[in-house]
Amino acid sequence: MFNKKLPCQRLLLGLLFSTGVGLFAYRRRSLSRSGVAGAMATGSVTVGMGGWSWGLALIYFFVSSSLLSHFRSREKERTAADKFSKGSQRDFLQVIANGGVATALSLAHGLTNSQSTGELLQAGYTGALATANGDTWATELGVLNTRQPRLITTGKPVAPGTSGGITLLGTAASAVGGLSLGLVFWLLQGFRKAPVGAASARLLSLPVIGLLSGLLGSLADSLMGATLQAIYYCPTCEKETERRIHSCGTATLPLRGIAWFDNDVVNFIATLCGALIGIGSHLLLQCNKRTYRDEYSTTHHP
Predict the structure, then answer these.
(1) How does the average pLDDT of the chain come out, rounded?
(2) Measured CA angle at 253 (ends 248, 259), to 5 deg
(3) CA dihedral over 31, 35, 37, 39, signed as positive or negative
(4) How many structural domains are present in the chain?
């Protein structure tokens, strides 16, 4: 059996731990009050149902993203702050948009008794969180790129911070961010147990899943930002923005996209895509391993 008991004690410990982290983040101005509630909910479920390695991977995403949000923040404010609908202080919806899919997968993982299903959910969790991490790294570092971003759909040069704009630095950051998440999760869950044989090979796939999900999930986020996300235009400043009320105080006009398809919806769907990429990558890696094993058995044992 893969998991037999609901870890009630671990749920309580997860609640206490996530509350402490959330309050600390609130004091550091990384979370709003509603964001603390979101962190408590996602952290409690993730630690309680997934385990401490899952919870600490979530903490790694939050800490690395928060640090990058504050990195050269004044320069980012001068460059593109007026384009983003929300600031660096994450609220409840932002927490759920980035961590909701991963939390749901950790809940399912805690309820399953199947090892194979548990491994699929683990791969999906890695993919979802790697996408959130990779996309955040891409946004926070890409906006600092010295070269002008280009729209992912047309290649047209756009202003820094424009939804759907990509840079070489941002794309590389998404891949590294995803890889780092997968590597941290592997170290927390795999290396610590030091398994051998097939189990070790399965766990070693986590960094690969993180890399692929971080890169592809971030590109999916950019594609939605360029096509579906609601973008507005400020007639006073003559600039595009995600805000209904621009930083200058002017009510903006709809420019493109679907009205309810804001950045939180984009992030949620992107992490869902990342989870599917993670699951698909896991299945593909397992299929390749079985094929290699069968070929090896046929060659060496006629």
Answers:
(1) 86
(2) 120
(3) negative
(4) 1
